[in-house]
Amino acid sequence: MRNTIAHGWRVAARTAGLQFGATLAVTLVAAAGFGQRAALAALLGGGSVSMGTVLFALRLFGRGIAPARSVLRSAWSAQALKWFWMIAVLYLAIAVWKLPFAGLVAGMLAAQFAFWIALIATR
After folding, report:
1. Side-chain half-sphere CA neighbours of 50 within 13 A
2. Closest to 24 (Cα-Cα) out of 63, 60, 50
3. pTM score > 0.85 for this model?
4. Which of 70, 17, 25 is nearest to 43 (CA)?
5. Which residues does 10 contact at the CB level (< 8 Å), separation at least 6?
6. Which of 74, 80, 114, 120 is the most exposed, having the fewest neighbouring CB atoms within 10 Å of its CB?
7. Is 3 exposed, middle or buried (0-12, 13-18, 19+ CB in 10 A)?
8. What is the pLDDT of residues 56-110, one digit of tens each?
9. Buried residues in 11-45 as b, exposed as e (16+ CB within 10 A)
């Protein structure tokens, strides 16, 4: 049966792994073509999206089997946690560490496209 918490964990793990892989690929390209700061920005941008996926999965699936209302609340709070994480990391990267914006966006886009590909591949 594919509608299990175990299946959800497997999908989340595959998705986060694919996101981390795409992030590393963009980081290597950025390092080769644009320097260390751009590579660090790409790594941080993609890593924040990937880690957001992990945090979402931990919050959503961490409680195990639960009533539907509780699962819905977990989904909402998981999404809020993911957004809070993303905003905090982006604030630090842009305002505090002054990393290149293009690198951040490139890493985030790579991880997000990997997320969509993973969702299509696990149907």
Report:
1. 22
2. 50
3. yes
4. 25
5. none
6. 120
7. exposed
8. 999 988 877 888 888 899 999 999 999 999 999 999 999 999 999 999 999 999 9
9. bbeebbebbbebbbebbeebbeebeeebbbbbbbb
